[in-house]
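Throughout our pipeline, every protein is held as a single compact record rather than as scattered files. Nothing more is needed to write down the fold, since each code stands for a local backbone conformation. For reference, a complete record is included directly beneath this paragraph.
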Amino acid sequence: MSFNSVTPTPAAPSGLLAAHAGKRLPLQVLRSAAGHYLGTYDDGPVSRESVEYFPTREAARHALDTGTWTQRQHP
């Protein structure tokens, strides 16, 4: 008998500020007129989690993947 081993992938980090809205939502790259940012989305933007705005989607994704961004502390 053989078993297939599945290595769980880490869960996407959840938005800290989205919790203020009573939601547990994964962080993702979003865009506004000011630039790309890390935030949460649920039928529309819920929270902007990053202090920074990034010039490109790729730069924002890199910051999310590497943890090189600053979490906003207040909505």
In short: Confidence is low (pLDDT under 50) at residues 1-10. The radius of gyration is 15 Å.
